[in-house]
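Milestone 3.1: sequence recovery, worked example.
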């Protein structure tokens, strides 16, 4: 007769608890759980920032009408820069310009503990800058806020410096994923821009964070994409030459954009009085927005209209309201020529905003200019919407020098996955054009300039 050993329920329960404790405290699982929490928080913050900027912008532009000179364009952007300067100097008492640059510096110096106030301060400051018409983006501030979320969650959980660095990167990537609803683009931001050292655990954590952030924002916004492209045309192989030419144009333009931004930032750097700097930068921004109203704000609504084939918004609110359609390429040339100045005046003279959205806007206008110029002046019929769309990825790839991120951000925010091939061609050629000329990205250019300035004796000021 076989004797059967009876299992003690208490021992079985303790064994299960022990195995579960080992599983939950393993590196991959614990980091992934925290990454999920960070992703949800960053996605919620991205949604909140979108809504705050939209509310302020809609409220202030309610009395701006098409077909007339709008003096408010001379007032609002300047007021936004001044208010942001007041907030950062007298309330926050800390400089939070160029959040991505600050993250890159923190990672390089292994300073992973970001202040708790950084969770919300970039959101408030960028709402003032962008809501009042700043011609830049919200991705820099939300990436900085997301990094602060990751850093503070890690500090609360008493994580090691290495794990804190991973969670900081998770938060920054989640911020990008949330603001663009682009999980893969957010992950590529961590890889190409932040250049984090990835292990299996960190890759898994970043993917969990960006998926959680993207889905959170997607759900909170009603499961809609941000940049609809209803007139999307199928890519035809015989148009490949026009796509290659656009890639080269985007690369050349990227060199100009970074050069112009560097020159204007140097000018702002020479102005030591913060009030004067705010007035100068706000004044430049206001004049440019008054002449080219399409530069007002982040530009996503304008890009949406262009992709839909509606170009009236480019002319209706400014001095070019009565120009003929044959002059549209000239107007677009003016917009792309000064877009770098407008973006730099928005985020380097007291405002708080990002660098990604301006590159998307500039690329969209460049692609449209190329297509309309070929159509009106050379009689060559090109798909205007498609080329404007490709240009978005081309300019971002060349200026930020992150081609894979650029490709997926543009695809994910619009759902245009069938155009992966031409977008990849434009982004790659633009990137290689810039690299062939040995030019730095906008972040590297800024970092090198600041390193040179900090290496010189600093003048004393009251």
């Amino acid at each position: 007769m076989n004797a059967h050993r009876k299992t003690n329920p208490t021992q079985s329960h303790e064994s299960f608890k022990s195995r579960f404790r080992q599983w939950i405290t393993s590196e991959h699982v614990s980091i992934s759980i925290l990454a999920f929490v960070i992703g949800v928080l960053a996605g919620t913050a991205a949604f909140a920032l979108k809504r705050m900027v939209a509310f302020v912008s809609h409220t202030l532009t309610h009395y701006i009408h098409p077909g007339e000179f709008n003096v408010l364009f001379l007032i609002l952007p300047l007021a936004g820069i001044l208010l942001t300067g007041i907030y950062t100097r007298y309330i926050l008492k800390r400089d939070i310009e160029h959040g991505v640059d600050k993250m890159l510096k923190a990672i390089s110096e292994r300073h992973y503990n970001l202040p708790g106030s950084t969770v919300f301060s970039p959101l408030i400051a960028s709402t003032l800058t962008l809501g009042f018409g700043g011609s830049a983006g919200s991705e820099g501030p939300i990436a900085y806020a997301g990094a602060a979320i990751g850093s503070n969650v890690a500090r609360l959980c008493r994580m090691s410096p290495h794990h804190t660095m991973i969670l900081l990167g998770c938060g920054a990537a989640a911020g990008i994923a949330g603001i663009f609803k682009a999980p893969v683009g957010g992950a590529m931001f961590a890889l190409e821009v932040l250049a984090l050292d990835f292990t299996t655990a960190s890759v898994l954590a970043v993917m969990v964070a960006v998926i959680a952030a993207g889905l959170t924002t997607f759900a909170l916004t009603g499961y809609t994409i941000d940049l609809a492209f209803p007139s999307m045309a199928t890519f035809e192989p015989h148009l490949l030459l026009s796509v290659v030419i656009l890639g080269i144009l985007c690369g050349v333009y990227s060199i100009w954009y970074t050069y112009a931004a560097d020159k204007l930032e140097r000018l702002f750097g020479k102005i030591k009085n913060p009030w004067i700097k705010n007035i100068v930068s706000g004044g430049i921004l206001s004049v440019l927005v008054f002449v080219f109203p399409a530069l007002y704000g982040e530009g996503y609504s304008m890009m949406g209209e262009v992709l839909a084939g509606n170009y009236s918004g480019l002319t209706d609110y400014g001095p070019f309201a009565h120009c003929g359609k044959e002059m549209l390429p000239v107007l677009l040339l003016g917009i792309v020529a000064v877009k770098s100045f407008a973006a730099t005046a928005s985020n380097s003279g007291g405002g708080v905003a990002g660098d990604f959205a301006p590159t998307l806007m500039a690329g969209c206008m460049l692609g449209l200019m190329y297509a309309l110029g070929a159509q009106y002046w050379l009689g060559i019929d090109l798909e205007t919407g498609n080329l404007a769309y490709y240009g978005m990825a081309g300019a971002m790839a060349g200026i930020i020098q992150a081609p894979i991120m650029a490709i997926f951000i543009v695809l994910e925010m619009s759902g245009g996955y069938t155009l992966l091939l031409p977008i990849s061609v434009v982004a790659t050629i633009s990137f290689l054009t810039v690299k062939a000329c040995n030019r730095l990205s906008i972040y590297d250019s800024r970092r090198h300039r600041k390193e040179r300035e900090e290496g010189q004796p600093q003048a004393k000021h009251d």
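The chain has two domains: 26-220, 237-454. Residues 456-462 have pLDDT under 50 and may be disordered.
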